[in-house]
Design a protein that fits this description.
Blueprint (H helix, E strand, L loop, with lengths): L1 H14 L4 H23 L3 H15 L8 H25 L3 H17 L5 H15 L11 H21 L9 H24 L7 H13 L17 H26 L7 H25 L9 H20 L5 H27 L23 H12 L5 H19 L8 H11 L4 H29 L3 H22 L1 H19 L5 H23 L4 H28 L10 H17 L12 H21 L9 H27 L8 H8 L12 H29 L11
Helix pairs in contact: 2-3, 2-7, 2-18, 3-6, 3-7, 4-5, 4-6, 4-7, 5-6, 5-15, 6-16, 8-9, 8-10, 8-11, 9-10, 10-13, 10-23, 11-12, 11-13, 12-13, 12-26, 13-26, 15-16, 15-20, 16-20, 17-19, 17-20, 18-19, 21-22, 21-23, 21-24, 22-23, 23-26, 24-26, 25-26
C-alpha cells in the first residue's frame, strides 16, 4: 500500500494540482449523502431524499460555481429560490407531456439565455435546468410538492455549508490581478519608448520590451482567460475591467506605431522632448493602475495625465498658430502620442470605475459610447445586454434555442411507453449536447463508451448485491466519491461510467432493482445523446465556427460606415446616424470566445488571426469614440477643402474595410494590401491652409488625419490576419 500511494500522489499532483477535483467530489459526496440519508432513513421521506440528493448534484456537480468563498455562498443561496420555482413549475406541468415539453422549451431557453449575464450565472445554468427536469415527469403528484421543495432546500443548504467548511476551494485569480500583471510590462514599454523618443540612441532592448508588452496584453484576450475570470457581465466592475483591458491593447498598438515613426532624422529635439514627456506621463499613469487593482495602492489620479495632455495640445496649437507650412511627420508623431495618452486615460477611468469611484470622474474627455454604462442603472445595463444578444446572430441566442428545442424534444421522446427512466434521457441531452456538430461528435463516442462500461459494472453490482439495500447504503459514499472524481481526472468516458454506477446504487435504494436497470441507463443515455446530436445538426450545427466569419464581417462593414460618419461629424459635415458598432463588436467577442472553445478545424476558420481582427474591431470603436469625446459638438471646419479631403480619405478607408469584410464572410482569398496606398493618399494631408487663423480647429484636423493614418495601419494588420495568421505584422510606413 505505501508503494501504491507513493506512485499515486505524484500522478494526482500532475493531473489535479490543487486537489480541486478530489476535494469537490468529496465535498459533494458528503453533502449529498448527508441530505439523502437524513431524509430517507431518519425521516422516512424518500421524495425529499431524492430531491436533496439531486439538488446537491445539480449545483455541486453539474454546475460550476466560481468566485471567492463568500461569492460562491451568495450564488448558491441566490440560486435556491430560482430552483424552488423551477421545481414547483415542473411539478405542476407534469400533468401532461405536452405541457411539460412546452414548459421545458420556455425554461430551457430562459435559463440558457441568462448566461449573457456572465460566467457566474452561466456556471449555474445546467444545474438549474436539472431542477426543472427532475419533477416534470410522472407521477403527477402536486401533493408531494412540499417534500420536493424541502428536499431541495436541504440539499442546497448542505452544499453551501460544505463549500465553506469542507476543503473549501480557493477563489479564482481574478481578472483584476491578471490585468495588473499585463499593465506592468506595458508601463515599462511606455517608459522605454519615452527614453528612445528623447534619445534615438537609447533603443537597446526596446524591441524586446515591446514584444513583452504585446505578449502580456495577449493574455487578456477572452480565449486566453478561464471562463470564471472573464469580465463579461453587465455590472460596472466587469464592464470597467473589460474596457481597461481593451484600452491597454490600444495603448500598446499606439506605442508600436510611435516607435516606427521615430527613425525620421528630421524630427527635432524640442518635438522629441515634448512627445517623450507625454508618453512618460502616460506610462506612469498606466503603472499606477497595477497596485490599485491589486488593492495595494491608491486609486490612480487623472490630474497629472490631463495636465500633461493639455500642455501638449496647447504646444501643438501654438505651433499651428505660428506656421502654415507644417512638418507633417512631426504632426504624425504627435497624433500617435495623443491617441496613446487618450487610451491611457480610458485605462485610468476604467480602473477607477472598477474600484467604485466612477461617480467622481469629470464628464469632459470621457468617451461617450465606451463609458455610457456609468450613467445607467443596473436594470438598464441588464436590458442593454439582453437586447444586444436577443438576435439570431448571437451565439448566446443560438445556444439557448438549440438547448431548449433539444430538451423539449427529449421530454416528448422520454414519454414513449418503453422508456422507464425518462429523466435519464433528458439528463443525457442536457450534459452531452454541444454548441457545434463537430464538438458533439467528439463528445458522444467517449460518453457512449463510458456509459457502456458503467452499465456493465452496474449490472454486475446489481446481480451480485441483489436486493440487499444495506450494502448500497454503506457503499454509496465510496461510489459517489470515486464516481464524481474520475471524470475530471480521467475524462468524460470515465465520468459517464462512474455516474452510471452511482445512479444504479441510488435507485436501488428507492425501489427494487435488477440488472435491467443498468441496461435501461445505457439505452436512455444513448437515446438522449442522439436526440441532442440530431437537434444540434438541425439548429445552427456549425456553432461559433459558422458564425465567426459572419460576425467579423459585420463588424468591419459597420465599422466602415462608422469611419465615414465619424470623419463627417468631426469635420462638421452633415452625417448619417451612427451605426451601433459596439453591439456588433459584443456579438463578435462572444462568438470568438465560443469558437475557440469548440476546437474548430482550420477549414472552419482557424486559418485567420482572429485576435488581430478583434484588435482592429476594438480600435474602430474606441479610437473614434475617443475623438468624439474630445470634440463633442464640433462646428464646420473653416477650410472646406481640408474637410472634403479628410472625408474623401475616410471613404477610401471604408471601401477597403468593406472589401476585407467580403473576403472574410466568404472565406475568399485576401484582397490586395491597400494600406500603403492609403498612406500615400493621406500624405498630402493636412494640406496647406491658414491654420494660424483657428489653431483649435487645426488640432482637430491633425487628430482626424492621424486617426486615418492609424486606420491605414489596421488595414495592413487585417491583410496580415488573412494571409499570415501566425504572426502580427508591423505597420507599413509611407
Amino acid at each position: 500500500m505505501p508503494a501504491v500511494l507513493t506512485g499515486v500522489r505524484p500522478w494526482l499532483r500532475r493531473h489535479d494540482p490543487r486537489s480541486a477535483a478530489v476535494r469537490r467530489a468529496l465535498r459533494v459526496t458528503v453533502a449529498a449523502c448527508a441530505g439523502f440519508y437524513a431524509c430517507q432513513y431518519l425521516l422516512g421521506q424518500p421524495v425529499a431524499a431524492l430531491y436533496a440528493l439531486f439538488g446537491t448534484i445539480a449545483l455541486g456537480l453539474l454546475s460550476d460555481v466560481a468566485g471567492t468563498p463568500a461569492e460562491r455562498t451568495r450564488l448558491l443561496l441566490g440560486a435556491l429560490p430560482v430552483g424552488l420555482v423551477l421545481v414547483a413549475l415542473g411539478t405542476v406541468l407534469a400533468v401532461d407531456v405536452w405541457a411539460a415539453a412546452a414548459g421545458m422549451l420556455v425554461v430551457g431557453f430562459a435559463v440558457a439565455f441568462s448566461t449573457v449575464g456572465g460566467p457566474k450565472i452561466a456556471g449555474l445554468a445546467n444545474g438549474l435546468q436539472l431542477l426543472y427536469i427532475l419533477p416534470c415527469f410522472p407521477p403527477y403528484d402536486p401533493g408531494s410538492l412540499p417534500a420536493r421543495l424541502a428536499g431541495v432546500v436541504v440539499g442546497i443548504g448542505l452544499l453551501a455549508a460544505a463549500d465553506r467548511v469542507l476543503w473549501p476551494a480557493p477563489g479564482p485569480r481574478g481578472f483584476a490581478d491578471r490585468l495588473a500583471c499585463a499593465i506592468e510590462p506595458v508601463g515599462r514599454y511606455a517608459a522605454a519608448v519615452a527614453a528612445a523618443t528623447r534619445d534615438p540612441g537609447a533603443r537597446d532592448g526596446l524591441e524586446r520590451c515591446g514584444a513583452g508588452a504585446m505578449d502580456a496584453v495577449a493574455t487578456l484576450r477572452l480565449d486566453e482567460v478561464p471562463r470564471a475570470e472573464r469580465p463579461v457581465g453587465p455590472g460596472v466592475r466587469d464592464r470597467s475591467l473589460g474596457i481597461a483591458a481593451i484600452a491597454l491593447q490600444s495603448v500598446t498598438a499606439r506605442l508600436t506605431n510611435l516607435v516606427a515613426l521615430l527613425d525620421d532624422p528630421a524630427l527635432g529635439g524640442q518635438a522629441r522632448d515634448a512627445v517623450a514627456r507625454l508618453v512618460a506621463t502616460a506610462g506612469r499613469a498606466v503603472e499606477a493602475c497595477a497596485p490599485a487593482l491589486r488593492g495595494a495602492g491608491e486609486a490612480p489620479a487623472l490630474g497629472p495625465l490631463d495636465t500633461a495632455l493639455a500642455e501638449f495640445l496647447s504646444r501643438r496649437a501654438a505651433i499651428l498658430a505660428a506656421r502654415d507650412d507644417i512638418a507633417r511627420r512631426h504632426l504624425r508623431v504627435g497624433a500617435e502620442a495623443v491617441m496613446a495618452a487618450q487610451s491611457t486615460r480610458a485605462i485610468v477611468v476604467g480602473t477607477r470605475a472598477a474600484l467604485g469611484l466612477a461617480g467622481h470622474e469629470p464628464p469632459v474627455g470621457i468617451a461617450p459610447v465606451t463609458f455610457a454604462y456609468l450613467d445607467r442603472s443596473a436594470a438598464q445595463r441588464w436590458w442593454r445586454r439582453l437586447r444586444v444578444h436577443l438576435t439570431p446572430r448571437s451565439v448566446y441566442f443560438q445556444n439557448a434555442v438549440r438547448l431548449a428545442v433539444g430538451l423539449a424534444v427529449a421530454r416528448i421522446v422520454a414519454d414513449l411507453p418503453d422508456i422507464t427512466h425518462g429523466f435519464w434521457v433528458m439528463l443525457a441531452t442536457l450534459t452531452l449536447m454541444r454548441t457545434s456538430l463537430v464538438a458533439s461528435r467528439s463528445t458522444l463516442g467517449p460518453a457512449f463508451g463510458g456509459v457502456l462500461a458503467g452499465a456493465v459494472l452496474a449490472g454486475i453490482m446489481l446481480v451480485a448485491v441483489g436486493d440487499r439495500t444495506e450494502i448500497y447504503t454503506w457503499s454509496l459514499p465510496v461510489l459517489m466519491a470515486l464516481g464524481f472524481a474520475v471524470g475530471p481526472l480521467f475524462g468524460p468516458a470515465a465520468g459517464q461510467a462512474g455516474f452510471t454506477v452511482v445512479v444504479a446504487a441510488i435507485f436501488a435504494q428507492l425501489a427494487p432493482a435488477t440488472w435491467h436497470l443498468a441496461e435501461t441507463r445505457l439505452v436512455d443515455v444513448v437515446l438522449g445523446g442522439l436526440v441532442g446530436a440530431v437537434i444540434g445538426a438541425a439548429v445552427w450545427p456549425r456553432g461559433g465556427a459558422g458564425e465567426v466569419r459572419r460576425s467579423a464581417a459585420a463588424v468591419l462593414r459597420t465599422g466602415a460606415d462608422d469611419v465615414v460618419a465619424t470623419a463627417r461629424i468631426l469635420t462638421g459635415t452633415p452625417a448619417s446616424p451612427r451605426a451601433d458598432l459596439p453591439k456588433r463588436l459584443a456579438l463578435l467577442d462572444a462568438t470568438h470566445a465560443q469558437f475557440r472553445s469548440e476546437g474548430a478545424s482550420a477549414s472552419a476558420g482557424a486559418d485567420v488571426n482572429w485576435l488581430a481582427v478583434l484588435g482592429v474591431g476594438h480600435r474602430l470603436v474606441d479610437d473614434a469614440d475617443l475623438l468624439r469625446g474630445r470634440y463633442p459638438d464640433p462646428d464646420p471646419l473653416p477650410w472646406p477643402a481640408v474637410a472634403a479631403a479628410l472625408v474623401d480619405a475616410a471613404t477610401v478607408v471604408a471601401h477597403d474595410l468593406r472589401v476585407t469584410a467580403a473576403a472574410l464572410a466568404t472565406a475568399a482569398a485576401a484582397p490586395p494590401d491597400e494600406s500603403a496606398g492609403v498612406h500615400a493618399r493621406l500624405s498630402p494631408h493636412p494640406p496647406v491652409a491658414d491654420y494660424g487663423r483657428a489653431p483649435s480647429d487645426a488640432l482637430r484636423v491633425v487628430d482626424v488625419w492621424g486617426w486615418l493614418h492609424g486606420l491605414a495601419d489596421d488595414l495592413h494588420r487585417l491583410h496580415g490576419a488573412l494571409t499570415a495568421p501566425g504572426r502580427e505584422r508591423p505597420p507599413v510606413r509611407s
